[in-house]
Specification:
Layout: H1 20-32, H2 37-47, E1 49-50, E2 57-58, H3 61-78, E3 79-80, H4 86-107, H5 112-121, H6 132-138, H7 147-157, H8 160-173, E4 181-182, H9 185-206, H10 215-222, H11 224-234, H12 236-242, H13 256-271, E5 289-299, H14 310-324, E6 342-349, E7 353-359, H15 369-387, E8 392-398, E9 402-404, H16 424-437, E10 444-449, E11 455-458, E12 461-464, H17 475-490, E13 494-499, H18 504-517, E14 521-523, H19 526-544
Parallel strand pairs: 3-4, 7-8, 7-10, 10-13, 13-14
Antiparallel strand pairs: 1-2, 5-6, 8-9, 11-12
Helix pairs in contact: 1-2, 1-12, 3-9, 4-5, 4-7, 6-8, 10-11, 13-15, 15-19, 16-17, 17-18
């Protein structure tokens, strides 16, 4: 049977759904802080999140549990249950008094009937340990002599199940209720039902069974914000899936669309500051790769590449002949003259190959460094894909070793606590291999780091080296890394370094690296990193193409 529930219109019945773009924004902040996708989604559910565009902070499961506990405690602080069953006890005593008088008057106080009655009643319900429900139960099959008493007892017997529930509740947790206000029987029953509902909801929330919790019931207990938050938490993953940001089924994974969206958001954040000043353009005057404009042509000039637009050339010749010989029918062949030739206009551009070397050592987790660096990497990728699609852009993470990080993995990648060393040499080696695969006239390597090298390879043998003393250096790691810098320089790549720490050993090492490569070095904070790196990338492209 289908049951329908109705309540007064209050405006909250309008369709209430989670905006997946806002959810992705909240998810992005956690991913930038180094959480995996699964950890970020779990954190949003457990601890809630800010919802841009709404005057609502989505309450997490822990917030809801805390509110549920507080509602229960507020009842415990207000009431006591010591007199909760007194009204029932008095009613039962009155009924039994009437029946006892009737039995005695009809059968005598020495009769078996009277003795049976007294045996059933022998335990005073006010005595400790004697539940009132037990006395009621003992008279369940008694044939009452007093008709009015029997009718009143039947009404009281209908309350037996609720009475037992209240007695169990008071036995289990009556000591918690220490408030000044006595709870009468019906009030105590309402308290029991409310707290049992609170606990059932709390258990479902702890078990992750969000669909089992009724949002309307939660609204009645905790208010509209709690009910709305439950809906948003419940629909979090399904909303992201429907929007195409999360793959459906199986392991949770961001889609390429979500990656692009994260990149666009990161770009808006770190690139927005650049709109106030001229950061450079990509057009170049020098001839490079020519890309024709399909809808634009111009007359051929001596020295132009012979990229002829045949259709417009022939039409121009036919039009010229018609003007020269009006009234004469157009016949083939058509004589072409030099002034008839139309060549396609071209844009001249050049490709750029950029490798971003991202320090993934444990110290990058401090002061928001890694989150800022990862946000910049996503922004750079989005910038290249949308504004310079012919460029090649790669991200390489380096810790004790180096690895190329595919862009789909980038939102979830975090610092590496298991490999505490810093192998910039291996990062530069991998960058050189990528540049060799995708050569360009002016390749560049961008290094984001907060520490000097402490790991290196000799041939294929990996070696690690702790710094020599406090604020010391790792001399062999530094020297092997500088050898790699010389090889990079010999291949024509520029190394620009963005330092997130100003310790003397790092400053000295980067100074030596810059002397070899003639690149630039930026001393930056996490908050400034995006602007510095983006300005440098655009400026480098502009300079390289002139």
């Amino acid at each position: 049977m289908r049951v329908y529930r109705y309540r007064a219109w209050d405006g909250s019945q309008l369709e209430f759904r989670l905006d997946p773009d806002h959810a992705l924004d909240a998810l992005s902040d956690l991913l930038m802080d180094g959480l995996s996708l699964g950890e970020a989604l779990d954190a949003m559910r457990e601890h809630g999140f800010e919802l841009a565009g709404r005057e609502l902070r989505v309450m997490g499961v822990q917030d809801l549990l805390r509110e549920l506990r507080e509602r229960a405690r507020s009842l415990e602080r207000r009431y006591h249950l010591r007199e909760a069953t007194e009204s029932i006890r008095r009613r039962l005593q009155e009924i039994l008094d009437r029946e006892q008088t009737a039995v005695r008057d009809r059968h005598g106080h020495e009769s078996a009937r009277h003795n049976d009655f007294m045996a059933r009643r022998h335990a005073d319900p006010s005595e400790p340990g004697e539940p009132l429900s037990a006395l009621l139960d003992r008279f369940r099959d008694w044939a009452f002599e007093d008709a009015a008493a029997g009718e009143a007892f039947s009404e009281l017997l209908a309350e037996l199940d609720r009475l037992r529930a209240l007695e169990r509740f008071r036995h289990a947790r009556g000591d918690r209720f220490a408030g000044p206000e006595p709870a009468a029987y019906e009030t105590a029953q309402e308290i029991r039902e409310r707290i049992e509902a609170l606990e059932a909801m709390a258990q479902a929330l702890r078990d992750g069974e969000l669909p089992a919790v009724d949002p309307e019931a939660l609204r009645e207990l905790l208010g509209h914000d709690a009910g709305d938050s439950l809906i948003l938490l419940r629909d979090l993953e399904s909303s992201l899936e429907r929007a195409g940001y999360l793959r459906e089924g199986g392991d949770r994974e961001l889609t390429p669309r979500a990656i692009r969206k994260l990149g666009a958001g990161a770009l808006a954040e770190v690139y927005g500051a650049l709109h106030r000043e001229r950061a450079g353009e990509h057009e170049v005057d020098a001839r490079g790769v020519a890309l024709p404009r399909p809808d634009e042509t111009r007359p051929f000039e001596f020295g132009d590449p012979l990229d002829v637009d045949v259709v417009r050339t022939v039409l121009g010749a036919a039009r010229r002949r018609a003007l020269e010989r009006p009234g004469e029918p157009q016949t083939l062949p058509i004589d072409l003259q030099l002034d008839d030739f139309q060549v396609r206009e071209c844009d001249y551009s050049t490709q750029s190959t950029t490798v971003l070397l991202l320090d993934m050592s444990w110290s990058m987790s401090w002061e928001g460094r890694f989150a800022a660096a990862k946000r910049v990497a996503l922004a750079m990728d989005h910038l290249v894909r949308t504004r310079f699609p012919r460029d090649h852009f790669f991200v390489v993470g380096f810790y004790t070793r180096a690895e190329q990080i595919p862009i789909p993995r980038l939102p979830e990648v975090t610092w590496n606590m298991g490999d505490p060393f810093t192998n910039l040499q291996d990062g530069l080696r991998l960058a050189q291999r990528l540049i060799a695969r995708f050569p360009s006239p002016s390749p560049q390597i961008l290094v984001i780091t907060d520490g000097q090298p402490t790991a290196y390879f000799v041939g294929s043998e990996l070696r690690v080296e702790w710094p020599m003393g406090v604020n010391g250096i790792s001399p062999r790691a530094a020297e092997e890394t500088l050898k790699e810098v010389r090889r990079v320089t010999g291949q024509g790549a520029t190394i620009n370094t963005f330092m997130l720490d100003s310790s003397p050993e790092l400053v000295n090492f980067v100074a030596r690296m810059t002397q070899i490569n003639r690149g630039r070095v930026f001393y930056s904070s996490p908050a400034q990193l995006g602007s510095y790196l983006m300005v440098d990338y655009l400026a480098h492209r502009t300079q390289a193409r002139r």
